[in-house]
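Helix-turn-helix domain-containing protein, pasting as requested.
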Amino acid sequence: MATTKSGTSPAQRLLDAASTLFVREGIRAVGIERILSRADVARASLYQTFGSKDALVVAYLDGQDESARTRYTREAARLEDPRDRVLLTFDLAAKDAKRQGFRGCLYLNALTEFPEAGHPVRLAVDRHRARLAGTWAEELTAAGLADPGPTVAQLMLLYDGGLAGCKSARSAEPVLQARDMAAELLERALPRAVAAN
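Structure tokens follow.
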């Protein structure tokens, strides 16, 4: 793929432009022309690289998920306690909420805009949520919980609620409160020997 003098490919410029605009304004509210203008690429570049706006949206969501996974993996490597690694997801969400202007969860926002079952955007959101749930399940299993499923479901409710609350409160406080509730949940759910560490 061709790159500009700055070394950035048209595909990357399209993703960067879409990421900025989608977070700030929503996905369906942003037309192709605005993305092309901000990315400073020709329409043909979008269709040659992604094929459609929907495919660009999927690439945006998958890219956000990959970035979140990389960041989580890097920061979780510094933590020994699986409980702390679970709670790290809430800490990172609180930082992201502020950075993204308290727009709520970008994945839940995408589901609102693309509610159709089987839509590629919905499938991208499902991949992200399954990855997050899988991470929590692994950490809870490492902490000694034999059946992490119910606790993971409760964590997801707290996480979703905290992010939704950030949107209405225009503050990271709701996700931080959800973190405190998650810590209490983990204290109750995990075996005593682990909780005593």
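Note for the archive: DSSP finds ten helices and no strands in the chain.
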